[in-house]
Amino acid sequence: MILPQDTIGIIGGGQLGQMMALSAKEMGFVVGILDPTPNCPASQVADWHIQANYDDSKAIEELVTKSDVVTYEFENVDADVLAKCAELGKLPQGLDLLKISQNRKHEKAFLTKLNLPTAAYDIVASQEELIQALDLLGYPSVLKTCSGGYDGKGQVVIKSEADIKEATVLLTLGECVLEKWLTFEKEISVIVSGSSRGQFEVFPIAENRHQNNVLHTSLIPADILGDCESQAKEMAKKIAENLEIKGTITVEMFVTKHGGIIINEMAPRPHNSGHYSIEACNVSQFDLHIRGICGWPLPKVVLHESAVMVNLLGKEADLAKEWIYLKPEWYFHYYGKKEVKDGRKMGHITILSNSLNETLEEINQTNIWK
To answer: Could you state, in order of their start, the residue ranges of all structural domains in the chain?
Structure first.
């Protein structure tokens, strides 16, 4: 076990790293951050900050040397750079999870191996292969880069032959996954935490709504049938058990019209849609991530109250400030980012609720998100 006063090194200094660090500090750990950005959100609450690029092997080595255990807040970390960390036993999440989740080709193969449902797909590396795959999957389909890409980046919807030329630009970046277009009713996420003690705890399922491919709102619990809920949790837990997860992972899924489940993708870390757990549950996704990577036992997750989490993107963060005085029951989170950009996640608000529909209407009436 990693114990209080030991050091946790976090690769990545964004808001997820910040919230990991806050949980770790509450438990008595020393926290170090590696991130290239000065005064990044996580560095503002950590004990020390190595300012360096994520592929800087010397900086990674320094982080590993100074830490008793190492984790990461996002999946775009070069797994090869972390190999030595894993060899030293300081990367409890291991490299398999990272390699699978940062490459859609590997991710699809892994899910298929476990007989878990995904959208029909094909791997393509050229325009000729793309055209052949489209003949099989039909229109519309979605072409996605195998690596990189988030919040809708690195993908193109192909609605007809006229879109093929635009889509082939992605192929210049390397192999891509072509997925058959899915019609679904809801998008959900299931967050699971595991520890080295073989325990696995599943958080209440979040129902997610997006705008411009960026998460806008999460509703907890998701409005889905009981059988659908059980199925989704079992799938996520099967993934966690197979990979012997230590820490927190997220599995994003689609719910079809008839209550079926299709797995979209995995994230080897806490997730934007799980922020509600800070206020709405007895323990947060970040608490269980820290507990899991440190070998602590995991308490059973309890949802105290239904909740709505809504992101503050770009200028929405400033618009929301005037409501701090008017909404004392809302929980405002600001990440400490200096530069405001359109679509950039600047913070979020969590609202505990007895009626999710009434809370959504209350949110709309503020015009923060107009």
So the answer is: 7-91, 120-180, 184-365
Q: Domain spanning 184-365: which superfamily?
A: ATP-grasp fold, B domain (3.30.470.20)
Cα dihedral sign, 293-294-300-301: negative
> What residues are paired with 334 via a beta bridge?
347
114 pLDDT band (50/70/90 cuts)?
Answer: very high
In this structure, CATH architecture of domain 120-180:
2-Layer Sandwich (3.30)
The two domains 7-91 and 184-365 share their CATH topology (first three levels equal): no
Binding positions for ATP are 104, 144, 149-155, 179-182, 187, 210, 264-265
Annotated binding site: 104, 144, 149-155, 179-182, 187, 210, 264-265
Segment 262-277 shows an average pLDDT of: 96
- Helices of type H across the chain: 15-26, 57-66, 83-87, 96-101, 104-113, 127-137, 164-171, 226-242, 277-280, 285-293, 316-321, 356-365
Phi and psi, residue 55, nearest 5°: -100, 15
On whether the 7-91 domain is CATH 3.40.50.150, my answer is no
CA dist 324 and 332 (Å) reads 7
Q: Are 150 and 206 in contact (CB under 8 A)?
A: no
Both tokens of 119, joined, read 């959208």
Task: Give per-residue pLDDT as tens, 138-163.
Answer: 999 999 999 876 666 788 999 999 99
